[in-house]
Structures are given as C-alpha cells and as structure tokens.
Amino acid sequence: MQIQTTAAIIGGGVIGGGWAARFLLMGWDVRVYDPDPEAERKIGEVLAGARRALPMLYDVALPPEGNLTFHDTIADAVTGATWVQESVPERLPLKHKVLAEIIAHAPAGALVGSSTSGFKPSELQEGSKTPDRILVTHPFNPVYLLPLVELVGSSKSSPETFEKAQNLLTDIGFFPLRVEKEIDAHIADRFLEAVWREALWLIKDGIATTAQIDEAIRMGFGLRWAQMGLFETYRIAGGEAGMRHFIEQFGPALAWPWTKLMDVPDLDAALIDKIAAQSDAQSGHLSIRELERLRDDNLVALLRALRQQGSAAGAHLNHHEKIISQTLDNASPLETVARTVPVDWTDYNGHMNEGRYGQVFSDAADSVMRLVGADQTYIDAGLSYFTVETTIKYLAETHAGADIKVTTQVIEGAGKKLKLHHEMMGADGTLHATCTQMLIHVSLETRRSCPPRADVMEEVERLAATHGAKT
Amino acid sequence: MQIQTTAAIIGGGVIGGGWAARFLLMGWDVRVYDPDPEAERKIGEVLAGARRALPMLYDVALPPEGNLTFHDTIADAVTGATWVQESVPERLPLKHKVLAEIIAHAPAGALVGSSTSGFKPSELQEGSKTPDRILVTHPFNPVYLLPLVELVGSSKSSPETFEKAQNLLTDIGFFPLRVEKEIDAHIADRFLEAVWREALWLIKDGIATTAQIDEAIRMGFGLRWAQMGLFETYRIAGGEAGMRHFIEQFGPALAWPWTKLMDVPDLDAALIDKIAAQSDAQSGHLSIRELERLRDDNLVALLRALRQQGSAAGAHLNHHEKIISQTLDNASPLETVARTVPVDWTDYNGHMNEGRYGQVFSDAADSVMRLVGADQTYIDAGLSYFTVETTIKYLAETHAGADIKVTTQVIEGAGKKLKLHHEMMGADGTLHATCTQMLIHVSLETRRSCPPRADVMEEVERLAATHGAKT
User: Fold this and answer.
1) Burial (CB count within 10 angstroms: exposed 0-12, middle 13-18, buried 19+), residue A101
2) How far apart are CA B21 and CA B17, in angstroms?
3) Closest-CA residue of chain B to A189
4) Which of A152, A265, B68, B156 is the most buried (most CB within 10 A)?
C-alpha cells in the first residue's frame, strides 16, 4: 500500500472532514483549505470520531497516522498533493472557481475528486482545459466508515484516470462504484430522494411519524439491504422460479397507487415544523455527538459481523485489511497481534469479555502459524493446528478503543506439539493478560492428530530453540 | 410466555411457511390448510431454514417445538386456534371467501391476521359480520428472522383487538408496528415500491446494472438503515443544528430531477429480459437455497451485532430473549447454559473458535452469579465478580448450529473467591470442553477486590458446600 502520500482537502465540514480522517488514518499527509474560522475545530471533531471507530473495523493496527496541516490558500494546500478532494457548497459557479484554482496550482499528475451530490462530472468539467483530471467521487456519511464512494466520469474521462482513481480510493478503504453513464444525483441518492419524498407524504398526511418510519425500515428491509441490496433480495423472494417470476408477480403493483411519487409534497413551514417536532420527540434526548457515537458503534458492529461472514461490505473490508497488513517481523519474542479493541468486545462489566482474550490469543497463535508456513494455503491443503488447552491469567482490565499488542514465545515445538506463551500489553506497556496455549497438529480430513509438513516442523523447532533458550 | 397455544395457517408458501415456522419454534401447535399438493414440502423447506437460523439469534434455548399438522379444509385447520393467519394470493374476492370461512369455523375469540401487502383492512373487512376480528399483520421475508410486522386496523378495529394482537405477536418475537391510518401498501412497501420504480428506470436507461444497484445500497445507506432508519440518520447529517437544518439544506432537491418517479417505466418484455439477465450474471452461480442460507447467515450475524450493541432490532431481540428465558433450576451440578452455536462463532478451521468457548464459560459464570443474587441490580449497585484465571481443555470440536449445554459446579466459594468447574456437552451428551475458572469479587467503583454482600456470600458458601461434597 502507498503511504506517506499527500492529499489536499478543499472544504472541510462533515464530508471534507471525513475524507481528511480516512486519508490521515491510512497514513497519508493531509493539507486542508477551508475559509471557515471554525474549520479546524469541526474537522477535529470528525477526526476524533474517526480515530475512535475506524481502527475498530480492522483486526490489525492501521499504518502510522499522517500529518494534518491547515493552509490559508488553495494554492498552498494543494502543494505536492497526489489527490485533491473538493467538498465546497453545492453551487456550480463556486465549484467552477475552486476547481480552476486547484488545477492551476496542483501538481500536474494530481487528480481532483468532487464530493458533489447533485452535479454531473460534465457540469463540473465545463470550461476546464484539463477536464480529464476532474471526477465525481461521492462518499456517504460517515465517510470514515461507510465503504461506498460513487466514482463518476464523463465522456471526457479517460480509462487511465478511472483506473488511477479506483486504485487510490481502494487503498484508503473505499469501495469505488464506477457509474458508467452520468446522471443527476448519481445512483444511491436517487433512491434516498425517492424514499425521502415518500416519507414526506406519509408524515404530511399523518399516516406515520418519523419514529414509525425509522422502525419500518430498521426492523425490516434495512437489515436486508445492509447485506444483499434490492435485486439479490428479490431474487430469493422469487423462489426457485427466480427473478423473472418475482417481476411477473409484483409487476402489476406498478400500476397501483402504492406510492405518492407522481407528485411532490410542498415543503412548507407546517411540514417542516411537524418533522422537526417528531424528530425531537424521537431522538431529542440524545445530543448529535451521542447519536453519532451510537451510529458509529452500530456501524462498527454491523461491519464486523459482515467481515466475519465474509459478505458484502465485510468481504470488502477483509480485502482491505490484507492491503494494510504489516508483515510480521521475526524478533524474539514475536509480536503476534497489534490491534484496537472494538466496541463489540465488551460486556456488562464495561470491559473486554474474557472470551475475547481467548480470541486475541487465538489470533496470536494464527500469526505464529503463518510465520512457520502453516498459512491459508496449508490449511486449504487439509492441515492445521487445533488448540487443546489454554490457561489465561487476567491481570488488568481492557476497554473498547484500547490499542493492544501481544508478544509470543514458542516454549515447546516438537512433533505434533506446539506450546506458546503469550503476553498481552496495553499501549503503555502494562501487562493485561498472559496465556499458555497447547496446540496439536491435525489433519482436517480425519480431524485427528498427525505430524506437520517437514518445512513447518523445522521452522517450529527453530523458533522453539531460539525462544526456549531465552525463557 | 404463552406456550402450547394453537395457530392456524391458511395458505402456505414462503410467507405462510414463515409464519408457521415462527409459531412452531416458539412452542405453538400449528395447523396448516393449503390446497397446493406441494404445500407440505414447501413449508418443510422454509421450516428447515428457520430451524437452522432462528435459534442462533438467541443466547438461550428456545421452548420445545410445537406440533405441525396439515388439514384438508379451512374448517378443520382453524379448530381450537387462538390465532389464524391468512396468506392466500392477493385477490380480494378470494380473500373475502377465505376470511368468511375462517370466521365461520374458528373459535369465537380467535383473531385473524392477513399477510396482505396491498389491501387495506377495511377492504378485507367488507361484508364481514365481525370486522373487528380481521386485521392486517403484514410480515417481511424471511418471516422467521425479520422482526417487523405491520399491524393495521380500520375504524372498525377496537383498541382491545389491537392490544391482544400486539401482545401475541410480541410473544412470538415480532416487532408489531401499529399503523394508525390505513393506506394502500401500508408503510414499508411504499418505500420499497418507490425504490423499485427508480431502480427499473436506472436499469432500463442503462445507468446501472442490478449488481451495481445492490452495491450502491449495501456498501452505503443499507448499513445506515439497518440500525437508524431514515430520520435519525438525517438528524445527524443536520449536525448540531439538527433536523430543521437538514431539511432546509436538502429541501431544494425536491424541485430537482433527482428521481424519475414522476413517471413509471413500462415493464415490457425487453425490460424484464434485461433485469433477469443481469440478475443471472450477478447471482446465477448460487442456487436459491444457497442464497437463502447466505441471507440468513448474514441476518443472524447482523442481528447478533445489534443485540450486542443493544440497538434497533437488537434491543428488540434482547427484550424477547427475556420473555423466552427459562428459569434456572437449582440442581447439582447446575445447568448454566443451553443454547445453539450461531454462525458468527466459527473460524477458518470450520469449528467454534477457542475464544467462543471462553464466552460460553463466561455466560455460565453469569448464570451462577444471577443464581446467588449477584444479578443486574447488584451490578448496577457497583458490585460484581471478575475472572482472574481460566483453564480450558478442548476435547471435541463444536460446529455452528449445534445445541450445547453447560453444567457447573461451585468447587470453592469463600470470602472474595469463587471457583467454578464447567463441563460443556453436545446434544448427545459428548463432552466438548471443560473449564476451571477463578473469579474474585470486586467493587466496580474502585475496581479492586472486596467481599460480596452477606446474602450473596451465604448463597455461594451453600452451593460450594453442596457441590464440594459431590466432587
């Protein structure tokens, strides 16, 4: 993965701040231009949220954070930038002015992504001498957690530009969805707009409140859409006859009055008051910061659930973790885990549940296995190590958000046996727990013990000799 | 919770089968009428999916399954039913005929819920002498996993009927959303219809494929909607200025061409072909059964993630688990855990990860704590037990879907110390693992050890004396 690269963020706020946070936490230097005197504070708040939540998505430590600097002019901010992200207010003349200034001062190879929700790339490119350098890269809030970014070009965008943008966005953890044909509001916001318009009608007509609408979504199809989206879900609904059957069955509803979207409600003061009052009644007991934290904790937990299943956004994160993984060094004792404790690991006592210590030490054993050559290919070939006994001593409490490390010694390694001693430490070096773990080499076919492959055994013996001598 | 109660399912298929499965797995007897000669097979398939997935949502065993019987007439099927669920095809004259027959033969106190997507309750009640007994109870696929059911009545529905229906639906795990004013397609399907219409346009116009649309949803706002829905999400987007600011900022988009929903696409053969072909390209490598399993595994993992956070559908499930929890008996050794291993507990070796054994034994210790009086109230008052050392022996592999039990002996209990010995067994009595666990009583305020409250210590000593004698 590229690190020590520079991004310029033109326009802070929630969206620009989210971009800044993602770049920084993935090891990029970030240079910000935003005329708002509050910009530094606002970006600082987004960054605090990102520093807390983003590392929890991964089971490895993120790269060292880049440097964040603030600049008084666009010309200064874009100096040395590989990527410039424009997130200024949605007014086309303003966007044209800002984009022209960026292009005039940024390095010749730098691309410019615009966070615009509504404008098409061809509109942004109007009047530019280098239209191919301007793309729409439309992210979703919270930008530091949600993988989706819509990557939209016009007929003036070259395949090379698309590819370069796609690679770079993937490096910092995004899932770039390439939109082939430009259209107002791109793709996702068109769905959001449709639902928004329908929701306005339901509230205006007194059919449902904001809270009821939220429950109608999150207790039902919201859960489907977090993992399969629309069409794969409906393919299943069609049953064995598939998609065609589904459409034939539900097609007639298109002619029925199942939505009011032939018409748009008048967003007058009365309707705004009604929505604001209902929203206060629903969520007013929580501050925006508390709501943000709740949202981020839920997103971390949902995304980690999908990671474990290897599905949807989880599959994407698993892939990205491989990109950011640091290679294990061969020191004695080995550093086998470096990670942040995620929010889904704590229990009613407010600390990391004892089961999660077991998982951390299981991950530490996996690191040792990879190091000795018992990696995924080895496992796919039908050989592995199973744990037969562990003893864990819990010495200090561990909390969500804590950075932890595990060092490991191979204290016995002969034949089928592999005995490990792990020490788990906090960021300040405090010892949180120790674990002694006996593993036995097995055949995954017979599920019985058997000797490891010769090269694996040799490596285990070598480590045992090195570490044993120092114990 | 009510058990040994009877539900009649009129009309099987995916929806009726889902209702049957939820009732059965929550301990109800289920009597099915469906003239389709394939009904028994079709319901059997839905039931197999439900038996696999639904128990994984809970951290306790479900009640014993009820009896499933098939009947040749509606009159026979509704005998003795407390609840009748109608899920026949969406044709109003057919619904009227079936509902009249149900009312004629069902016990006088039985309510009738209709799974209709499109008809209003007043339409279903037309011509009925007992309209108050007929309600819309509209569920979402998969009915055995998604909590949402829309509960809709008309002006002829009494508050008592609503309350009775609401309690009963809650007992079997649903989240009944009461819709106050009837409307075509109720609430959730209006949003689905809006998105569906917009999606048809995007495909017809070649803007996006079915796969791209699914990614645009599940990599972005689908994750938001699984936990907060629409309005709470937008409240955050409004920032510190809240909902009003958000509306004022995005209101103007209502006048922009951000959706094509002023018009409805013609669902002709060409468009149907296009969608079916794209869906085949996207998901055709998986059978419907495989897709269903993938969906259910993902839903289990997502719902369990929300349970852990105590949020949205997870908060609802936590509440429902309390309803179904069996009280712990006081036998020696104690049975401290009885549950199904969920899909999110396995690792690359295809079996339950060692960390999850730690979690099961942690749960077993929690059961003992509750039994001796160190329950949630005690913890809220600032006292608890922390684990200081565990030794686990792994004796047999454990797989997702397995029913497991843990029995526990208190082998030492004096002063601040509580030492437990756990044995984890499979459904056939095979010993899967043992764990010896030392806990120390602590003050949650000082985070240091201290003696338990007198009544708790007395109960711990009593158990230690009883169990110690038998060890």
Assistant:
1) middle
2) 6
3) B258
4) A152
Q: Which residue has the tokens 């909390």?
A: A399
The interface pTM score, or ipTM, of the predicted complex is 0.88
Residue by residue, what is the 3-state secondary structure of chain A? CCCCCEEEEECCHHHHHHHHHHHHHCCCEEEEECCCCCHHHHHHHHHHHHHHHHHHHCCCCCCCCCCEEEECCHHHHCCCCCEEEECCCCCHHHHHHHHHHHHHHCCCCCEEEECCCCCCHHHHHCCCCCHHHEEEEEECCCCCCCCEEEEECCCCCCHHHHHHHHHHHHHCCCEEEEECCCCCCCCHHHHHHHHHHHHHHHHHCCCCCHHHHHHHHHHHHHHHHCCCCCHHHHHHHCHHHHHHHHHHHHHHHHHCCCCCCCCCCCCCHHHHHHHHHHHHHHHCCCCHHHHHHHHHHHHHHHHHHHHHHCCHHHHHHHHHHHHHCCCCCCCCCEEEEEEECCHHHECCCCCECHHHHHHHHHHHHHHHHHHCCCCHHHHHCCEEEEEEEEEEEECCCCCCCCEEEEEEEEEEEECCEEEEEEEEEECCCCEEEEEEEEEEEEECCCCEECCCCHHHHHHHHHHHHHHHHHC
Q: Where are the domains of chain A?
A: 6-185, 189-285, 327-470
**For B28, how many CA atoms within 13 A lie in the half-sphere containing its CB?**
27
Same fold, B6-186 and B327-470: no
CB distance B385 to B357 below 8 Å: no
Rounded Cα distance between A53 and A180, Å, is 32
DSSP B155: T
For A443, which residue in chain B has the nearest alpha carbon? B349
Q: Among the CATH numbers 1.10.1040.10, 3.40.640.10, 3.40.718.10, 1.10.10.10, which is that of B189-285?
A: 1.10.1040.10
CB A436 within 8 A of CB A408: no
Cβ-defined contact of A202 to B190 (cutoff 8 Å): yes
Q: Is B292 helix (H, G, I), strand (E, B) or coil?
A: helix
Mean pLDDT by 10-residue block, N- to C-terminus, for chain B (471 residues)? 79 94 96 95 93 90 93 97 96 96 96 95 96 97 95 96 95 93 92 87 88 93 92 79 72 60 66 79 81 87 90 88 70 84 87 94 94 94 96 95 94 95 96 97 95 96 81 47
Q: What do you get for the CA distance between the two ends of chain A, in Å?
A: 36
Helices A288-309 and A312-324 cross at an angle (nearest 10°) of 90
Which CATH superfamily includes the segment(s) A6-185? Answer: NAD(P)-binding Rossmann-like Domain (3.40.50.720)
Task: Compare CB distances from A243 to B231, B275, B309 and report the shortest one's residue.
Answer: B275
- List of chain A residues with pLDDT < 70: 1-4, 239-242, 250-265, 267, 326-332, 469-471
Check CB contact under 8 Å for B359 and A362: no
How far apart are the CA of A52 and the nearest CA of chain B, in angstroms? 16
Cα separation, A471 vs B400, whole angstroms: 39
Regarding the domain delimited by A327-470, which CATH topology (the fold level of the hierarchy) does it fall under?
A: Thiol Ester Dehydrase; Chain A (3.10.129)
Decide which of 3.40.640.10, 3.40.50.720, 3.10.560.10, 3.20.20.70 is the CATH code for B6-186.
3.40.50.720
Q: Which residue from B207, B267, B388 is facing A183, i.e. has the nearest CB? A: B207
Query: Looking at chain A, which residue has its C-alpha nearest residue B395?
Result: A388
Q: Is B434 helix (H, G, I), strand (E, B) or coil?
A: strand
- Chain B residues with beta carbon closer than 8 angstroms to that of A195: 191, 194-195, 230
Which residues contact residue A73 at a Cβ distance below 8 angstroms, ignoring those fewer than 6 apart?
A33
Q: Which chain A residues are within 8 Å of B18, Cβ to Cβ?
A: none
